[in-house]
Amino acid sequence: MSGLRHFASAKVFIRAQHYDGILFMEQPVLEVRDLTKTYRSGERTLTVLDSVSLSLTPGSYCAVVGPSGSGKTTLLGLCAGLDRPTSGSVFLDGVLLDQLDEDQLAGVRSESVGFVFQTFQLISTLTALENVVVPIELRAEIRVRSRARELLDQVG
Asked: Is residue 53 over pLDDT 70?
């Protein structure tokens, strides 16, 4: 049994807002519908993700948990537009990623996607400030170094 759909330990916490006794659900920032990812090798087909669906609203938390090789990284890559699903849909801020070309996907990733890794993913030959400068320069911001310092000050 492979694929994220089969994990009982995956948890999604969704936050809702109440105003005067009326429940308002926020629009999802990420919505995954029936996502499947398979890989072919000769006549063998390996299903890594099997009909995964989830919806995350702004401010919600999600833990993707499972053993090595179970599809966690594949799911994250598909949600970020780094790879294309075999079937199913990924919406990021209401945009269907399947309809975007590679340049458009790069723009979406630059503006809307960020990963927090378990270990540092820094370029070892650069200082902390220089590591922060790299993605800011890629976004063509004008005040690159001052913006990098502001961001470093925010996290300590």
From this structure: yes
| Fold held by 4-115 | Rossmann fold (3.40.50)
For the stretch 82-126, pLDDT in tens is 999 999 999 998 899 999 999 999 888 888 887 766 666 778 888
Locate the domains of the chain by residue range. Answer: 4-115, 117-156
State the SS3 of 82-111.
CCCCCEEEEEECCEEHHHCCHHHHHHHHHH
Beta-strand relationship, 95-96 and 87-92: antiparallel
CB distance 108 to 81 below 8 Å: yes
Cβ-contact 74, 90 below 8 angstroms: no
